[in-house]
Amino acid sequence: MNALAMMLAPLLTVAILGAPLFALLLLTVAHFALGDALAERRVQQLTASIFAVGLGGALALFVAFAMADVPHVVIDLGPLLSLRGYHFDLAMELTPTTLTLLVLTFALSAAVGAYSARYLHQDDGFFRFYVLLVLFAFGMELIVTARSLTLLFAGWEFVGLTSALLIAFYHRRYGPTRHGLRAYATYRATDLGLLLAVAILEHHAHSADFDRLGDLAMTPEVSTLVALLVVFGAMGKGAIVPLSGWLPKAMEGPTPSSAIFYGALSIHASPYLLLRAEPLLERVPLAQGLVIGLGALTAVHATLVGRTRPDIKTALGYASVAQVALIWIEVGMGWTTLALVHIVLHGVVRTWQLLRSPSILAERAALARRTGRASWFALLGPERLLPRSLAARLYRFSLEQWYLDQAGRVLLLNPIAALLRGLDRLDNRIRGLLGAQDAENPPR
Fold first, then answer.
1. Does the model's pTM come out above 0.70?
2. Contact at 8 Å (CB) between 243 and 190?
3. Residue 136 lies in a domain
């Protein structure tokens, strides 16, 4: 029986990981073959079938693990790249933790897909939404099952790209496009830290496998640098202070994408990365302290700012950030099991809340009409314990999101823009001295 379970595990893994790619292939072929004649119902049925296959495969793997009584299974599909002694192996690891998050990924993706069939009915971007949803599920699979930080980075990029494209889903409007670019720029800036961590690990330790992070032969200085880069890389998708300004603007996207990205899965990829890198963080107390400190600061920030938001989606978005910040604290404290349970339960609850946000507004309005009070939750606010003048200052401070956007422009964006403009002027002067002319401004 154990041998049968061990034989089924690789087959089920390949089927699970291949299902989204197969769906993308079918959707692409059908789109080019049928064009606008491709029925919405067929698109939704195909994606629902793929998510059902993935969910069934993940549950079957749970059964196989129980039958084989093994803690984990490594699926190595061989080297994807081999160059001058460096080789990048396409290897996945299946553990109870990864299977739990695989089940969560497919279950919530299926729920969002079903919800979106009516939410986006006859929308011009209906087909585009489902393609991005399937691509997002594939990226989450890579993040969840990756055996190394290198492969996780590949899935990390898929998730970041789909997130930005869905924020800019209504691309004919200026706001969503600008906010999608803002989120993508934040992702790219922090992803650079993750990429540098991979490069340093491969150069100094010749491995970025998660199960070896605790005993890699690196000096304390290199270990500290890599750990800090990993923490920085996790800050972007988690909207950790001071990089939280993009999240309220991300709510410009469709409600289903807001639910699965910033309520359920994408935002939780941030603490999940820290969970996988926990052996490395344990070697660097400074990194653990930074995780706890940033988590505590972000939890306070998101809680206070979220209470000043006038729209329910942004308020729920900040509530998600506050919970993710608490998970950061749990990871920093070493409470990994609690952090995993927190990720799963919060992902389910927040997705439900975001998908029901229009109904929640109607329910609150009905409650206010019946009781004469907007919300009983307002009675629990910490500002009621403060003097009125201090509470007013705190409200204005939180209403402006602690002025993080303004500080970022003054301290970071404006100096970088000035530097780039100066380099452009210097380049033009050098080109003028050399007698070169711009193609756009030929000599008359």
1. yes
2. yes
3. yes
